[in-house]
């Protein structure tokens, strides 16, 4: 029953991505959380160009991607779940949780190690915070992330459908929690008990270092509370907080060539970030 889904995984992932982008982008128009400071056309064009470049690069560099590695691990009997014959009923939800935990620690590592921070910093250097920020990552960062995903898959040996679900969930939630969307505070307070919300993640995109180095979670919000990196609200409030990396907030910094060169550039002024 799952074979058609796996055989058409690209279409399934693309369909889910387009659906959530349309939903969140429409929400941003109808009920925005903040007023954007820069041309959306400029940012969106270059953010989506870097995302398209990343997709092409991954397909050229890797003969198989995450789902393919899961299929290979099952065939070769690699990973804890395969070795111990853990049924899919348990291995699928367990993998979704453990995978998210691994992504959380990867994210913290990107902020801790200077050379990794230079790669990841391009994501934070977006002058605004909206759904397009969720697909803005440096190509080298994307390659490293894929290698880490593959390592986790080989170690755990999850079913291929679990990996596909994890990747879809990661993409969909990233679009949602980067959205410039208004959610009533009462609803957000309850929702962030189970899911990383835009208000929770926006704090992470503050120029203030203590706020940048908080709220690392991608899908589930529990890790930040468990490991002491949770921050409830930005110091200056969501409307007045400053987004991005000081010294990289100009319109020219949002251009594709600057995004690619970003790890090798220095801020135009001394930045506390």
Report the structural category. mainly alpha
Number of strands: 0
The helicity comes to 55-70%
Order of helices and strands: HHHHHHHHHHHHHHH
3D shape: globular
Outline the secondary-structure elements.
Elements: H1 3-7, H2 9-30, H3 40-61, H4 66-76, H5 80-83, H6 88-112, H7 114-124, H8 139-156, H9 160-177, H10 185-191, H11 198-202, H12 209-212, H13 222-226, H14 237-240, H15 256-261
Could you characterize the architecture of this molecule?
The chain has 273 residues and is mainly alpha-helical. It has one domain. 61% of the residues lie in helices and 0% in strands. The chain contains 15 helices and no strands.
What keyword list fits this structure?
15 helices, 61% helix, 273 residues, mainly alpha
Concise account of the structure shown:
The protein has helices spanning 3-7, 9-30, 40-61, 66-76, 80-83, 88-112, 114-124, 139-156, 160-177, 185-191, 198-202, 209-212, 222-226, 237-240, 256-261. The protein has 273 residues and is an all-alpha fold.
């Amino acid at each position: 029953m799952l074979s058609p889904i796996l055989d058409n995984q690209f279409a399934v992932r693309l369909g889910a991505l387009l659906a959530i982008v349309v939903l969140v982008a429409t929400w941003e128009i109808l009920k925005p959380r903040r007023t954007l400071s820069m041309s959306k056309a400029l940012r969106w064009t270059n953010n989506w160009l870097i995302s398209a470049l990343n997709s092409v690069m991954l397909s050229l560099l890797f003969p198989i991607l995450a789902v393919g590695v899961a299929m290979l691990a099952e065939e070769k009997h690699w990973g804890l779940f395969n070795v111990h014959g853990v049924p899919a009923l348990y291995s699928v939800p367990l993998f979704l949780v453990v995978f998210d935990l691994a992504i959380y620690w990867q994210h913290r590592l990107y902020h801790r190690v200077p050379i990794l921070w230079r790669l990841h910093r391009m994501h934070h250097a977006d002058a605004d915070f909206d759904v397009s920020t969720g697909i803005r990552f440096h190509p080298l960062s994307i390659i490293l992330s894929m290698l880490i995903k593959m390592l986790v898959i080989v170690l755990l040996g999850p079913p291929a459908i679990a990996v596909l679900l994890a990747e879809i969930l990661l993409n969909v939630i990233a679009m949602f929690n980067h959205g410039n969307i208004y959610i009533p505070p009462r609803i957000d307070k309850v929702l962030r008990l189970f899911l990383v919300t835009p208000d929770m993640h926006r704090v992470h995109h503050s120029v203030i270092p203590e706020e940048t180095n908080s709220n690392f979670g991608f899908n589930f919000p529990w890790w930040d509370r468990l490991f002491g990196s949770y921050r409830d609200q930005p110091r200056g409030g969501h409307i007045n907080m400053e987004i991005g990396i000081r010294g990289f907030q100009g319109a020219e910094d949002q251009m594709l060539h600057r995004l690619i060169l970003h790890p090798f550039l220095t801020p135009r002024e001394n930045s506390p970030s």
